[in-house]
Design a protein that fits this description.
six-stranded antiparallel sheet, single chain, 2 domains, 7 helices, alpha+beta, about 230 residues, four-stranded mixed sheet
Length: about 230
């Protein structure tokens, strides 16, 4: 986790530390400020539970303006109809940044018959210097111990990579694994914060699509990575 410093002049202190799919943990005062807003009953019950348990919010794409707030989101669990709640959080209300669980944390959530294949995949990725984490339904259920999973839930992987060549290796490992569990989805996360769906990346590098959708903290764009630039 990363502790934030909010001394003046404000936004520059934390903007550099943020990226998509990062978690933020709010202070007690921060949750009080959230709950002061005019939420509907379902949203208020969900946010009240988050405040009571000190559960995290996830950093989403930030607006282009440099306001002293962080755009975050909360995908609610099944009991709150899986609705998505957007929140603009004042920087002063964040205690620290956090991360989704390491992939090994969701092993017990997977069908028993794929546990060995899952461990083998994680070992392969670790040997290739990719410390994979899990977000999406599996990641949120591991974080909160609330019901998120359903029969069609993908297994969303956050895959840090250092270069285009590294991304190729990770995508190849995922595509070639013997796997009969939930669909392996997720993003390759480059060191500059750019993220690309690993399946799209593989199709692009194989020449099947001319560009890929690249997601960054403050926007999205179609880009080409046909060389080895990171």
């Amino acid at each position: 986790m990363a502790q934030l410093e909010f001394a003046a002049p404000a936004a520059a202190r934390w903007t550099a530390a943020l990226r998509r799919q990062q978690l933020v943990r709010l202070s007690v005062d921060g949750w009080m400020h959230v709950l002061e807003a005019p939420w509907d009953d379902d949203a208020r019950r969900c946010l009240g539970l988050w405040a009571e348990r000190g559960l995290p919010l996830v950093v989403t794409r930030q607006p282009p303006s440099g306001e002293d707030t962080i755009a975050t989101g909360l995908p609610a669990p099944a009991r709150f109809r899986r609705r998505r709640i957007a929140l603009a959080i004042a920087a002063r209300d964040v205690m620290f940044l956090d991360e989704f669980p390491l992939a090994s944390a969701v092993t017990r959530m997977l069908p028993r018959g794929v546990a060995a294949a899952w461990r083998a995949l994680l070992a392969t990725l670790a040997a290739g210097d990719c410390g994979v984490r899990v977000y999406g339904a599996h990641g949120w259920q591991a974080l909160t111990r609330l019901a998120y999973l359903h029969a069609a839930s993908d297994l969303d992987l956050l895959l840090p990579v250092s270069s285009a060549a590294h991304a190729d290796e990770v995508a190849h490992a995922l595509a070639s694994t013997a796997w009969d569990g939930p669909r392996l989805d997720g993003e390759l996360l480059f060191s500059d914060g750019a993220a690309v769906a690993w399946r799209e990346w593989r199709a692009h590098r194989e020449g099947r699509v001319p560009q890929v959708l690249v997601k960054r903290l403050r926007g999205v764009a179609l880009e080409s990575f046909r060389d080895d630039r990171s």
